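worker-03 picked up job from queue 'complexes'. Input manifest follows; two sequence lines, order preserved.
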Amino acid sequence: MSSRVNDFAFKIATANGTGSGSANGLIMQSIFRMGIPVTGKNLFPSNIQGLPTWYEIRVNKNGYTARTPVFDLVLALNAATYAKDVAEVRSGGWLLYDSTWPLDPKLIRPDVTYIGVPLADLCNSAFKGIRERILMKNIAYSGALAALIGIDPDIIRALTTEKYAKKPALLDSNDKAVALGYDYVKANYDCPLPIHLEPMDATKDSILIDGNTAASLGCVYAGATVGAWYPITPSTSMMEGFKGFCTRYRKDPVTGKNRYAILQAEDELSAIGMVIGASWAGARAFTPTSGPGISLMNEFLGLAYYAEVPTVVFDVQRTGPSTGMPTRTQQGDIMLCAYASHGDTKHICLYPSDPREAFEFAVAAFDLAERYQTPVFVLTDLDIGMNDWMIPKLTWDDSYTPDRGKVLSAEDLEQAKSFYRYMDIDGDGIPQRSLPGVHPKGAYFTRGSGHNKFGGYTEDSDEYQEVLDRIARKVQGASSSVPAPFILEKTGAKVGIITVGGCHAACMEAVELLDNDRMPVDYLRVRGFPFAAEVRQFIDSHDINFVVEQNRDGQMRNLLLLETGASPTKLDSIRYYSGFPICAQYIIDGLKSSLLVTA
Amino acid sequence: MSYIAKPKVHHPSLKPNAIGLTRRDYEGALTTLCAGCGHDSITAAIIQAFWELDVEPHKVAKLSGIGCSSKTPAYFLREAHGFNSVHGRMPSIATGAGAANGDLMMIGVSGDGDSLSIGFGQLCHAMRRNVNLLYVLENNGVYGLTKGQFSASADSGSTSKKGEVNTMEAIDGVLLALTLGATFVARSFSGDKEQLVPILKAGLMHKGFAFIDVISPCVTFNDHEGSTKAYAYTRGHQIEVVQADFVPLRSEITTEYEAGSVQKVTMHDGSVVNFRKVAEDYDPTDRDRAYAHIRQHQEAGEVATGLLYIDPSSVDMMEQNDVVPTPLYNQPFETLCPGSAALDKLQLRYR
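worker-03 finished. Artifact:
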């Protein structure tokens, strides 16, 4: 068969809690350092130890980083899932297994090439102790894989040397384990396989990072000082990231004291209360959570909306409803966040598509929350938040200053004739704000009960409506301040694809593949809510638009219908909600089948 | 929360405090609670305490949840920011506000429904965290705004206005606080201003969570025979086990005490609480003995009052988190943002 260079995918099947994470990370990073675009998806169970787990790696010279469902090679290292893993190899592909034990003949497929490597035997004779043997078996498979697909052993060696610089014994074991797998495969099989790697120069301006880490870094750069949270998958690593960065950057150089406070709350209700309290008192504060947390926060979110307190919430979405599948990805909270809480509300939402935007939108979220004095949601998902993505390096403009909005200083208040908290003084619907402890003239009563523009309690219909209408105008005004939609146009296109967040990579790939197939489509990715005017214009300028999203009910399509006033006949829908990230082929198939039916 | 603006009238005869303010300057809007409500007496005691402490009103944040008691922050300190939050969730707002601005003097006013039912978890965790907050639980054993349902502090065997008997055990805020490790625990009575004011002052100066359960009769729904939160019942069963005099730092001690009758406890800023012990062998710094003592009175159908327990070595939330002394909300941005050079360097880790 002819060879396929830098364009293939493989999958590694192991058991949770055996240390395969380090091995998989090592493989990803080695390929990245060879200059080849690479992406990894960790499909893990809600479990600490023992259940099956998979790691998918795709290398693609064109830079396509979406998930692919076609696997050229499967490393079947978990006997419990052999049958499933054997079935997943594409016809003509390869399967690596631990040949310490014979393979059940029922698992033999005639169209697959089997590569047996006695990993357990090799590690049992090379290492002592059960734990080390299990851990090193994983490292040994990275060595075997390196030989099969042509990962540069010097790069692996450099990575292990960096990682275990301070642990020479571990470095020694790792190197030994890599060599075990590598040497065995080299001695027993023709290497490399027809699917293999060759060095490129396509990653030097990129980094490999997950979205939770990037978002937490954005919080540090935005000047957030209070983080309140309740641990919930898949958002937990965001606060761990924030803590790590604060430890590095936020210690007073003289006293060693912290220029931040991290509050682990008793539940999400309390976490959002702390964020509202801290923001009310003038700090930049945030909470990372996931769908179940947003459900609990609803009451407080209505208070923040109505009392006009800046509030930043990161929703790393997972599958719902209810507990759902906590370690699987989805975009199921689009509606929940847009209108959280009882009564009439509408909230600013930002939709990053990758870790780079997670970093940038984190900063934007604090600016928008303070400028508009309202809750702002940053909606990522498990795929963006927890998987390592190849993204262009993050950049920072040192001339950035935080937009604190209309906050009156002690001097402002001293000079002001009067201060009324909820008065629209310049027509943009945004009132002036004062902070506690600053000046006697700034005092007002923050309340979720009916209030008039002076900040006083009211049960008067006109006074109540006046404030409520102003808030609606204020939030709608944010449509021109949220990140503008990303638009890509192809010559002659009459069909549009509209998407949001983490579907971006798959959509971009689909758009290119369709264009190559002489089916040009235009593409728009929504990046913020309330929607910018371009969104409606895009919808109207196409015969039909396919809204691609990862939920059952077409939540983004529904939100577009509700909020843009576009005709339902203009909006078709492609929905994927298996819990795994969407693939380009799914979009292409959905679009083609719908267009063929219509034609 | 309904209120009526109160005219600010200055009487030349009113005595100014050390910063030149009179008690009028610590007042707020007119109350809209029922005439005779215990909560209004507590408000008066709060005004007195702030005035005596010479606090600048705008340095205070007054917070509450939802309910009759939670309306009262509108009735004192008109020059302070107020936050009437959602039912039972005031502690989390206070926790966040305290984290953002450690210089704020915070008072939270809550009720027995707000604290012991819907907000039970938040109260417990704010105590556990030792948030620097004076928490006043205005305890009347009944839901007033919804017209007379038992609250979680209603004693077993007590009756409602309609004659219904409560069969469930009460949750006692003071015993709860002692169990959870609260660093300042007191109980008082809205009708005993002489006892309440020094406790409020000590609570405001305490570094950490100061919990005061104040029996505050509801004249409309819970002041009848059969109620254990009525004026008559409380007057008849209140036992003051310890009297606390609060002496702020740098004040002259004017009260004369008989030798051996006083236990001095020095607070974090050097202020002193002088405990005049009414009960023998009572030690307000001994958590276990305080607990046992209160239980004994409870068994006898009595309500033990006073500043019952204090931990002078209390370490509050911000100290536990080792936070810089300058309030976080006021940190210069350049000390918070690491900048582009640091970002370039950091990203080598992700290569």
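worker-03 released lock.
The first helix of chain A runs from residue 20 to 33.
Chain A has four domains: 4-204, 212-392, 410-479, 486-598.
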